[in-house]
Amino acid sequence: MQTIMSLVNLRPTVIRGNASEIMAVAGAAGKTKGVDSTAEPTHALEHAKQLAKDLGCIVAISGATDLVSFDSCTAVPSSPKILCNDICKAMQDVTKGRLAN
Fold it and tell me: Which of 32, 69, 97, 99 counts the highest number of beta carbons within 10 A?
């Protein structure tokens, strides 16, 4: 956990993880089973929103349904063809444009 917190202190543009990982980064309890999360992405959504707000970054929760949060926006892919990575990339582009202005 110390390693992830030192990385978070570097103010990343994107944080991506499963629900349990996002909850752990946010300081909440989350259970994992090996590399898999036992929590659904929706269980970590409020934590992701708070992380995104506090750190000014994009927070993506991967799972059966991917969720991506930035600022006051939460994106839910409308199709399985739209991947969490694609949404993160698009939101990064928006962020870069916002910072350039």
Answer: 69
Confidence band, pLDDT 50/70/90 cuts, at residue 22: very high
Which tokens hold the place of 28? 């909440």
- Backbone φ and ψ of 10, nearest 5°: -80, 0
Say whether pLDDT at 80 is over 80.
no
- Give the residue extent of every domain in the chain: 2-100
Three-state secondary structure call for residue 60: strand
Residue 12 burial by Cβ neighbours in a 10 Å radius (0-12, 13-18, 19+): middle
The model's pTM: 0.71
Task: Name the DSSP class of 71.
Answer: T
